[in-house]
Specification:
The chain is α/β, with parallel strands linked by helices. About 40% of the residues lie in helices and about 15% in strands. It is built from 11 helices and 10 strands. It starts with a helix and ends in an 18-residue tail after the last helix.
């Protein structure tokens, strides 16, 4: 495909990367994360494309709602820690920061956004699912927030997750990097619904249709009030963390499939954390 070999910025239904597919199903848009050779790990262009998709939804009179999903057994595992820019088109996206990712755009979208969590959901993928109006998950889906194991102080998570699932559970997830299954995620309130393994996307589309039938003004008012429950994140501390030494070592350790050097020798594990 031409788009796959000629990087260019988003325009219309093209999201700026061959690894995000934008499909119209009537007035419902479906964005599929499709980068199986890197297990759907998100490049800066992909994160920006997901952000653009939400903006495109809200600018398009003929679109009523948006659904995010993935391919295979992976929804979205977070950013590509290898720093791969294979789909980069320039324009500053290589300087990936919080302003270029879709999280706040999803949370504040004037039109409904739904996640169809078909598999592994962690890092930025978990934030996308959390901030969607509704998240529908397959029974085999798993959820994790491993940033602290990479040396990243993700204050966005630290602000939002306690509101979503409670302080004790958030502390457990954020400080240990533990993985939880879909049944636990439903019980804790990370997601809203479970679906049959093969029906996740179809169920999510039906939810999107239900959301889109509500009065637009009423929908926005209710969503604003719900959003007030989330505290403001400490953006400066997160920016400082991302420019520090720990994430660099965390990235190297991840790529080299080892424990970071801050882990005591007797606590190191074989393979990456």
């Amino acid at each position: 495909m031409t788009d796959a070999v000629t990087p260019r910025p988003p325009e219309g239904d093209w999201l700026g990367t061959p690894f995000l597919r934008f499909e119209r199903r009537g007035s419902i848009a479906v964005v599929t994360v499709d980068r199986p050779h890197r297990r759907n790990a998100m490049t800066p262009a992909m994160y920006f494309g997901a952000r653009y998709a939400v903006d495109h939804l809200n600018r398009s009179d003929d679109l009523a709602a948006l659904v995010f999903t993935g391919v295979g057994d992976v929804f979205i595992p977070g950013g590509d820690l290898g720093g791969d820019q294979e789909d980069g088109w320039g324009g500053g996206i290589e300087l990936l920061g919080y302003d270029l990712v879709p999280f706040e755009a999803i949370r504040n979208s004037a039109k409904p956004v739904v996640s169809a969590v078909n598999g592994i959901c962690q890092g930025g993928g978990l934030l996308i699912a959390m901030f969607s109006d509704v998240a529908v998950a397959a029974p085999s889906a798993t959820f994790r927030a491993p940033e602290v194991l990479r040396g990243i102080a993700d204050t966005g998570y630290a602000a939002a997750l306690p509101t979503q699932i409670g302080v004790a559970r958030a502390r457990d997830m954020l400080l240990t990097g533990r993985t939880i299954d879909a049944a636990t995620a439903l019980e804790w309130g990370l997601i809203s619904r479970l679906a049959d393994e093969v029906a996740v996307l179809d169920d999510a589309i039906e939810v999107a249709k239900q959301l889109a039938r509500g009065g637009p003004t009423a929908y926005r008012a209710v969503k604003r009030e719900v959003n007030r429950q989330y505290p403001r994140m400490d953006r400066m501390s997160m920016d400082e963390s991302l420019s520090g030494d720990e994430p660099i070592e965390g990235f190297h350790a991840f790529r080299e499939r080892r424990s970071p050097n801050w882990v005591s020798d007797d606590l190191k594990l074989d393979g990456r954390l």
